[in-house]
């Protein structure tokens, strides 16, 4: 121990990294992200699984990492053999057929599959789907409203009764899953969302049932093509190249998987942000009442930036030694880009911790960046805009039914969202 003399100022205490991934972190990760951005922007962390990974939290580094071809999506590049077998956090991913999905592969395989799927999953197909998303949304709100009489106070859990069923029914319809089978998907997806990080048995069974069902549906549709996304996946061809049946199955599965919990949480987190920012909510409600859509469009992007569903982009692995944000990264090291932290970086966004639905300079990373940029962004935007606008128009006095501090958050590694969202409203006459 050294004695302090009056001339030597005490050394500032070494800043200690905040606790990551615990319960408090899931409730509000943003102070921890601010700390990381400032003190340790490319930070070596031990994940709850015990795997060590680099967390990238500054906007400029994050954007660079997302597009950096030296960072592979293929788990075979992970230095840790157990992980290299495919334990990347997506249940059932070890199944060989599902390993070939877009988020696990690099060019040239990725280029080929993405080009084929892009021929089926087009912005035009999404646009044609607009009236159906509106119908599904209205139907779910009808059911919520019917539980209470006209003029009465009604209560609902908007996660279970609204945000959860909407995306699963929407993607099932788009894929061409017959109506009578859609509730099975709802149950399987419910199992996955409830127990994503928990007991593996039920989740593995649900993934297996989904995959088997999709495989059989694709097989049946080959001889009876219709006007749906699965038929388009089968039809899609590029210079004579087609998806194999196994590839089409993996593709349908990843569309479901990537497009489901994300959208649940876009709606849930988005509503939560509006409840917590009543001034912004009023502006949005007024503009919707005036028949305008501009604030809704910029608003959905801002809600994604402010508290988006995807905390961390999916895994990347260094294929060779590289330097990122001044930090040396060894070949084989996993790199996790923290989208939620990058999107609050004051070096990129003015007043980043404020929700500003009219924000126009808003190139957020909520949908990723580069060749893996979210394929489903047009569908997510359609669902998010329809869901929020319809709810606020039909139930204008919607309010939280519990104190905000009672809300419980589900923090997986990749996704963050509310477990429940209890609300009260007056039933319109
Ligand atoms: C990729 C976010 C909805 C399908 C991604 C990525 C992000 C993302 C961040 C890139 C991951 C990475 O680079 O590691 C979101 C958000 C959504 C949403 C925030 C909702 C608000 C959807 C929907 C679908 C979808 C509705 C489809 C129905 C996909 C697919 C990929 C992807 C297939 C992989 C693309 C590729 O690797 O080439 N998404 N997504 N997503 N998303 Fe989304």
Automatic annotation (TrEMBL):
CDD domains: CYP107-like
Pfam families from the UniProt entry: p450
Signal sequence extent: none
Disordered, as annotated region: 72-91
Superkingdom as given in the UniProt entry: Bacteria
Species in which this protein is naturally found: Streptomyces racemochromogenes
InterPro entries reported in the protein's UniProt record: Cyt_P450, Cyt_P450_B, Cyt_P450_sf
The protein's name in its UniProt record: Cytochrome P450
Entry similarity comment: Belongs to the cytochrome P450 family.
Xref: Gene3D superfamilies: Cytochrome P450
């Amino acid at each position: 121990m050294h004695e302090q003399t009056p001339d030597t100022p005490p050394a500032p205490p070494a800043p200690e990294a905040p606790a990551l991934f615990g319960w408090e972190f899931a409730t509000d990760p943003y102070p921890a992200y601010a700390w990381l951005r400032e003190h340790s922007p490319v930070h070596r962390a031990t994940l709850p699984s015990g795997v060590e990974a680099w967390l990238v939290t500054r906007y400029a580094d994050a954007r660079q990492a997302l597009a950096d071809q030296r960072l592979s999506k293929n788990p075979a590049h992970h230095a840790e053999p157990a992980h290299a077998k495919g334990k990347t956090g997506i249940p059932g991913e070890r199944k060989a057929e599902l390993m070939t999905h877009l988020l696990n592969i690099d060019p040239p395989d990725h280029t080929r599959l993405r080009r084929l799927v892009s021929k089926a999953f087009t912005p035009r197909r999404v646009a044609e789907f607009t009236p159906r998303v509106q119908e599904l949304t209205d139907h779910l709100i009808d059911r919520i409203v019917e539980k209470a009489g006209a003029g009465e106070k009604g209560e609902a859990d908007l996660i279970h009764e609204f945000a959860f069923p909407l995306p699963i029914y929407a993607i099932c319809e788009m894929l061409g899953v017959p109506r009578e089978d859609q509730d099975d998907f709802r149950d399987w997806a419910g199992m996955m969302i409830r127990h994503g990080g928990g007991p593996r048995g039920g989740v593995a069974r649900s993934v297996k049932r989904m995959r088997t069902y999709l495989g059989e549906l694709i097989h049946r549709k080959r001889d009876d093509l219709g006007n749906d996304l699965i038929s388009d996946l089968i039809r899609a061809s590029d210079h004579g190249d087609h998806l194999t049946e196994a590839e089409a199955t993996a593709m349908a599965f990843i569309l479901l998987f990537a497009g489901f919990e994300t959208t649940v949480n876009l709606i849930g987190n988005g509503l939560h942000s509006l409840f917590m920012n009543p001034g912004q909510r009023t502006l949005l409600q007024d503009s919707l009442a005036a028949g305008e859509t501009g604030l809704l469009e910029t608003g959905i992007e801002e809600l994604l930036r402010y508290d988006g569903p995807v905390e961390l982009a999916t895994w990347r692995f260094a294929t060779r030694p590289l330097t990122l944000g001044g930090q040396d990264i060894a070949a084989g090291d996993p790199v996790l880009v923290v989208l939620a932290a990058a999107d609050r970086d004051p070096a990129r966004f003015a007043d980043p911790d404020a929700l500003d639905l009219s924000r126009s300079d808003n190139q957020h990373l909520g949908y990723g960046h580069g060749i893996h940029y979210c394929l489903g962004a047009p569908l997510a935007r359609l669902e998010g805009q329809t869901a929020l606008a319809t709810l606020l128009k039909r139930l204008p006095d919607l309010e939280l039914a519990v104190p905000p501090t009672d809300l419980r958050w589900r923090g997986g590694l990749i996704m963050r969202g509310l477990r429940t969202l209890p609300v009260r409203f007056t039933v319109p006459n």
